[in-house]
Design goal:
The complex is a heterodimer. By secondary structure, chain A is mainly beta. Helix content of chain A is 0%, strand content 49%. Chain A starts with a strand and ends with a strand. Classes of the chains: A mainly beta, B mainly beta.
Amino acid sequence: NAGVTQTPKFQVLKTGQSMTLQCAQDMNHNSMYWYRQDPGMGLRLIYYSASEGTTDKGEVPNGYNVSRLNKREFSLRLESAAPSQTSVYFCASSPSLNTGELFFGEGSRLTVL
Amino acid sequence: DQQVKQNSPSLSVQEGRISILNCDYTNSMFDYFLWYKKYPAEGPTFLISISSIKDKNEDGRFTVFLNKSAKHLSLHIVPSQPGDSAVYFCAASRGNNYGQNFVFGPGTRLSVLP
């Protein structure tokens, strides 16, 4: 019972480099989400996918792109990383947008130098 | 301006006593509230929820109270156990599509001392 799996768990980038965070869930959930967590702040929604084939911006989408590859996978891409994107990133999923409870992955700690 | 506030960054409680974690919100449109628990190096896990039509919800040792007029909710843990030591996040949402509207507080770190 893996739940939500994120890779990589740790990454260090230089300013301007690109990378993709991968997320996969095995719970047959329709909705998936990417959040970031910064010190002293709550989790903030970057992008979400209500269902396979759809993606929408959340609260802080600038500098990111996403792809809902299939029902299981939802990736987050940083095209040109900036130090302000240093954060812990969490992927989450839920059966649908209106079921409330979110299931989170373990997080990916990204440092941009 | 934070819509969901947890004004106590940390809380220490003796094992066996009650832990009370507080959360305040500013948006009166919020109608669904959750608490998540997070251990180090793990993702948040769902603990308990409450909708605005209730003022209390109980699940074992955990009880959430909602005071809509004060825009305040609290999580009570009785009795507290060392395994409860974690960061607790309050989250609020509104409307039917909760998933896209969740607003999280900054968290309170609970330490339960043996």
